[in-house]
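Hello Y.,

Per our agreement to keep a running log of every chain we model this quarter, I'm adding this entry. I've kept the format consistent with earlier entries: sequence first, then predicted structure.
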Amino acid sequence: MKRMLLSVFVSFFLMVPFFVFSQTGEILLTAPGLKSGKPLMQALSERSSNREYSERELSEEHLSGLLWAACGINRPESGKRTAPSARNWQDVQVYVFMKQGIYLYDEAGHKLVPVVTGDHRKASGMQDFVEKAPVNLVYVSDYDRMKEAQDKSLYSGMSTGYISQNVYLYCASEGLNTVMRASVDREVLHKLMNLKPSQHVVGAQSVGYRP
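Predicted structure for the entry above:
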């Protein structure tokens, strides 16, 4: 009986990540492990799209590494990110849909800022599997950041592509499943996420452990 209870206890803490919350409800992420994962060429050879996910939530270490790889600050002196953007507009921001709620990734502080409470993963896409994926990243471009751009949708698509590929490579390196998705209800998301008129949902990407 004691062994059974211990097994349940351990399994619970393996399923639920330990997050550090600030007084404002922000999730404070630890520094990413820059020496973790597989070599680049191996990650490229294993990069793929997968639509099946375990219901296990991402560990704090994997969530931290995932978001930093996506578009974290890799040159603090200039504030530039791991993903390039034209004229360093940094127009695309990453919103994170998890069971706990919707968060905005603050690259400068490497933390998650709460946007909406509650589980809204189902709203992040039109496929059935998005509700099961522990993390759904929604990419939002703020057109006001792209000064003098002639074709803002083109630039936002390019920036999103860079971020998405960073996520793909991180997932391949760490043995996670992921898939980029264009099938999203942009009007519903815009209202749900309280976006400004200048902000546009470009796409979304599911991430999780292999089943």
